[in-house]
Amino acid sequence: MRAVLVGVDFGKGDFSASIEELSLLAQSAGAKPLITITCKRSSPDAALFVGSGKADEIAHAIGDATLDIAIFNHALSPAQQRNLERHLKVRVVDRTSLILDIFAQRAHSHEGKIQVELAQLQHLATRLIRGWTHLERQKGGIGLRGPGETQLETDRRLLGDRVKALKIKMEKLHKQRETQRRSRGRSKTFSVSLVGYTNAGKSTLFNVLTKAGAYAADQLFATLDTTSRRLYLGDAGSVVISDTVGFIRELPHQLVDAFRATLEETIHADLLLHVVDANSPVRLDQIQQVNDVLKEIGADQIPQLLVWNKIDLAGLEPSLELNEYDKIQRVFVSGRTGVGMDLLRDAIASYAKLDALKFNQVPQTIELNDERFI
Asked: What is the pTM of this model?
């Protein structure tokens, strides 16, 4: 599917990095970006987002290159999307729909598929004014996979019923996870969750640590389904490590809500391994984006260990960094080459030992006869 990428620079953040990310998202969804059109504005145009002049420019580019789709690097209102499709004469997909489509392609587990479908239906519910016949005519494609072809009916009530049924299923899954967590809690198992920006290398690190063989690829949102494995750390005992979905700038709220059951592995973890792409020029901004989502789901108070991954690409050496209290706060590793992984295991073990001391709080007997020294 031949695409034109459209981005508007509102003077916030690294715009070039944002456009590069949009291109990766488009490719991950199966599109072939051929043209990129950008402009600067102080605020979005109410009707066409980019304004009538820039919309004409995009329409001419689409006609000249016979493109199939226009992908916008922003969330469009239903009216803006409708107006743009009339003006450009091609399908228009905004950033939210694009990310939802990638999730629809990558979800494999029963739980993942339910979460993605719920997010898609909640997003599409705001666009019912476009008419269900619009969806019935589609043959699939970016922004319309899944419920656009199979679940959506011509009746709003049926849509509402489907959303309600999916929420009931999600509640059951939530209870199952609660049971599993209580079981881990009774066994005093230290739990660790990998979090980070998408494509930071979380699944690669997870596989190196646990020999799990989880799917890992150099693409955005390669992991959607949470995978947990035990890891033995010598005298620190066993810990449970979970690989979770990656975050991204402007992650759609529908996805955060729908994936709350999956993200609860993060909320209830004892330690977060915040994986950072050390080779990314916008790594500090990505760290902030991840922390924003962690705050949104209520996981911002959980201890974090920053793991700077891909140091082989960034020209850095494996090392540890301590804070003012001599506690490990940053580890430099490469999941691809394996350098620094012993330092990461030692760092996790130190957190697990500290947690065990706080959890047990058992008074230790000093080898003196006087029982006052107990």
From this structure: 0.76
